[in-house]
Specification:
The structure is a homotetramer of 337-residue chains.
Chain A: E1 5-10, H1 14-26, E2 30-36, H2 40-46, E3 54-56, H3 59-63, E4 70-73, H4 80-90, E5 94-96, H5 104-117, E6 122-124, H6 132-143, E7 149-157, H7 167-174, H8 176-186, E8 190-196, E9 212-218, E10 223-229, E11 237-244, E12 247-251, E13 257-261, E14 264-267, H9 273-276, H10 278-293, H11 302-321, E15 324-326
Parallel strand pairs in A: 1-2, 1-4, 2-3, 4-5, 5-6, 7-10
Antiparallel strand pairs in A: 7-11, 8-9, 8-15, 9-10, 11-12, 13-14
Helix pairs in contact in A: 4-5, 5-11, 6-8, 7-11, 8-11
EC number (chains A, B, C, D): 1.1.1.18
Function (chains A, B, C, D): Involved in the oxidation of myo-inositol (MI) to 2-keto-myo-inositol (2KMI or 2-inosose).
Protein name (chains A, B, C, D): Inositol 2-dehydrogenase
């Protein structure tokens, strides 16, 4: 296909506008064909200066607009299920921001609808799979050079949490990245979860259980522990150490420029996920565009989106109960075998 | 005191012989005055070429030998209680290798006997407190520059376990170091313990639960997690990251010489605890000799020895039960306030 | 401009074919409109599967082909001068691979021709300026947070040199990157050069002076030293430490994934400049496309290309003479002030 | 020998007093038997609280004092030659602080006097040879695992220079350590030296040529470059990278505790050589005591002391002349073969 892939972007908020910019100015082989947002003023702002884009208040209108060949869903999570099903009706390939569907029941409906179609249309926006360091780690684990993985030790720290961030969101928003990454790196499902609660940091807002220490068990007996600390004050740090039978591998100790001044040698720590994972977002969307133009669907599937939601729900119950909660997954359709 | 401190060394096995060498050739201000071992041939070998040392089969005879002013206990753990009480009878200061007394009941009897004396005579051989990196971390935590500590993430890996090493020994021998270090770094008791069991490594002997992931809770609500993996195959690695309210600090990523050859940049990892902690052993014994010559007792106390045993026992029960076990400590005598 | 920028790529060898791929599949906002190579078979191979590209044996034909709006020169160095002047005749913006013109006399003719036009058309392909680490270092130096830079210590190592690589090429091909980077980072000209010759490595081909140690002096009294070692055997390493009045900063110790196995902790070292600087090439071409579409010319100028050639020539004379050689530059036209 | 080695310490200034403390409290197997200093009050202060030490104004009286079996010279450099010859007269083994004798002519007289005795009595105080990192590097180079060494890149930075520090002292005091280390690591003489002078740092006192960049050539064609920067403002940094035919090895990037706080991950940099090399001083004196008690002389020889002085003198001439200066050494007596 030499023609540019026409993409409808649903949602013109922070993330949607950023994807519009990415498709227009960074990614090769695609163009923004339509944008939908209930706030059409915001949608117009997002596409200012871009030719050939139609602006819509309704999802359906955007999907049916001239030139639309694929859909990027960046609207709020609760709107995803309807948008996904609308895309299925039209046979349009979709890149859907995470969470695919916030409630696992809705996520399962999407899985079942896609399974009924009999072909994959959805790539879920777990962009860490497109990060160079994670890919290197994945490649090492898959090679089995270090034997079988036994444990993943993960760290997920933010400078501070946004207003309204709840204790449950540490699990179902922050840790959802580690849930997907662990499933992908280990190539197995997470089967149980326990959430430990150290005394909250004085730097956390009143009432927020922060940090938390989340321990997952997997189908083949590995352990995944995650320190999640969203008011750490000191930076955006995402690290992962895989401990295997004959070696360990660690990523995330960013080490690009070492500056030595009075008092010590210092390395910068990224303050923001958009800085740390900027390249991963670019590669994610490029990979989706490239695959779509070849008529393929690759990357994290609707099943991955569903499983992440189900594990996150179990995690929130574990946080609330203080005990160990098992993860119950529906049978996996053959489409995702 | 300008005269050298005369030390009776109890036990002439691997550790005892190493302490004889250390006192004779490394430490300033002390000399080996007597050695006791049921195997007197072994004791004679240990002191070959050293003048002025008497060799004994019995502990009592060594303690009463001419020139003995202090005792270093390096005999097997089950012999410690009797040796400690014999030293108490004679008012001799003691450096006692860990575990002070393997069973917490016996350890408590030692605590009570010392409390009755009304003055400290015992320093327990938790040598990590004398390691330069741990001391730097302790000093940073005590300064509260990073705020209150919330979590410690610990790694304890050996190349391989010796014959006869049991699943319980991962907790009560290997992790006992982390138990002491955590109590010391955080300056609070450990109150509960859970032991998680990932599927054992193919590199572990049949039947050994290795690795284990041990999670402690503390009196003030901190968490301490320890990966213990005694058949890691790749080295002796002891790391500790303290996560505090406004920063984190990590030790144990040895980084002395970086060698770059075809394929990568490599740092050596110590293969043995005697290499990693050689300086700590030297400093520990030197500190004990220096304090003893000044008539002082410093360092880890009999209470520390007792608490470590009690926590380790709870850990073994947690390993066996699969659940969370609380630690029950006797009241702390005023002597150790 | 919403239309894609039509680029004529001159040269379809290794580098040219890679740029064709980059424009077709990676870069946003451009397309390959024409390719020229005396070997038209090779040119056809390079554009197989790309629509709308014309293939030519002659440069002039490619520049005049329909849809050509800009030129990327990736032909052999000796062909650059003629191609550049042909582009000037047509007023086409150019991205010219390094060396802009191998001989400084020819490079100066290009400078003078562009100066006569009175506007910049040329960006020279010094891609390190687009590397994220170098950009971070540049930004730090420009901020003067560490005071004035006093010295740059540079390392430039390859696994092995290709057949036919001469001692002079260590200076005028390998070190030419450091020549540009030093001029750019320090924002001043290099004024003298000395080349020291340690005894050659046993791993270097017979007769090749490898490694070399090159020392540059700058107009404001800074020093730049470069270890260039093209048969190091162990990897592609490019490092730079800037020593300033109140601190130092170092880049190039890649540190992405640390793998610990028996014997040590290892980080991978890139084996190839295309791996190390892949992102820099992508960003360089993207920056050129973006600027060109806005009607701008940014990045390294023809003057930078000329100065690099002049310094490299002085370096080769210094290698041959064993002494210090001063760099003589023509007056800088106002266009490059 | 079970008796403690009686040491006469010459000089009770900063360094002498530190050695008195070291022998009294740190080192095993020795005691301070006598101290000499023209300022006997200072000498008395240095030995306060130590039994069995005699205090003298004159060197000869100290050497002849009861119990003196060995000499540690820590007086000012100009006093060393006479003290060394006095020790030779009495057949006493000597540990002599660096520089052995400041002027190479005097150093050569010491060499000749010792050669005439026909046996070594002198160990020169180049303590870096006792630093664990340097020893690891030496051991790696000697193993030839990386092939032959081709270059050493050295860094020597101080926070600030003491009052009265001259441009020549950067070479003959600071760099004298690298001179010895390079001769020892490479096991060959330095044959020529060039000193390059970047524009001085604004942080250096008026008139001081700081930093300097010193390049040595060796007898077998290796290069040794040293950045010496004594008013760097940011710490005491001593690094050395050995570049060999099939790999490189680097020491001196201290990496003990990594502290992450807002803005970055930080490692402490030592501010003082007594911190960085404290262990090396202890090991140096212990090694000397141990060897002396066994009737041996090991460590850096009088020849090493002489060669260091001769190379440093050439370095100062190179600094003054701006050119390359060859090092002329007297023939090496067989005693030092």
């Amino acid at each position: 296909m030499s023609e540019l892939l026409g993409v409808a972007v649903l949602g013109a908020g922070h993330m949607g506008a950023d994807h519009v910019r990415r498709i227009d100015r960074v990614v090769n082989g695609a163009r923004v064909a339509a944008v939908a947002d209930p706030d059409t003023g915001r949608a117009k702002d997002a596409v200012a200066g871009i030719d050939g884009v139609s602006v819509h208040a309704e999802v359906a209108a955007a999907l049916d607009a001239p030139g639309v060949q694929a859909v990027l869903i960046a609207s709020p999570g609760p709107a995803h299920e309807e948008a996904l099903l609308a895309a299925f009706d039209r046979g349009l390939p979709v890149l859907c921001e995470k969470p695919m569907v916030p409630e696992s029941a809705g996520a399962l409906r999407v899985v079942e609808a896609e399974a009924k179609l009999g072909r994959r249309l959805v790539q879920v926006g777990f962009m860490r799979r497109y990060d160079a360091e994670y890919q290197r780690l994945k490649s090492l684990l898959d090679s089995r050079r270090l034997g079988r993985p036994l444990m993943l030790h993960c760290t997920h720290r933010n400078v501070s949490s946004p207003p309204g961030f709840t204790s449950a969101m540490l699990v179902n928003s922050s840790v959802s990245h580690e849930i997907d990454v662990a499933r992908w790196l280990l190539d197995q499902e997470l089967t149980a979860v326990t959430v430990l609660r150290p005394r909250p940091s004085a730097g956390a807002p009143e009432g927020l259980v922060d940090p938390q220490f989340v321990v997952f068990e997997t189908a083949e007996g590995a352990l995944v522990d995650v320190e999640v600390f969203v008011n750490s004050g000191f930076g955006y740090q995402v690290r992962c150490e895989a401990v295997c039978e004959s070696g360990s591998a660690r990523i995330g100790d960013e080490h690009t420029m070492v500056v030595t001044t009075a008092g010590g040698a210092r390395e910068e720590v990224a303050q923001d996920y958009l800085v740390r994972f900027a390249d991963a977002y670019d590669r994610e969307v490029q990979a989706w565009v490239d695959a779509t133009r070849r008529g393929k669907v690759t990357g994290p599937s609707a099943w991955d989106g569903y499983a992440a939601s189900a594990v996150a729900e179990a995690g929130v119950r574990a946080l609330e109960s203080g005990g160990r909660v098992t993860v119950e997954l529906a049978p996996r359709p053959d489409l995702y075998a």
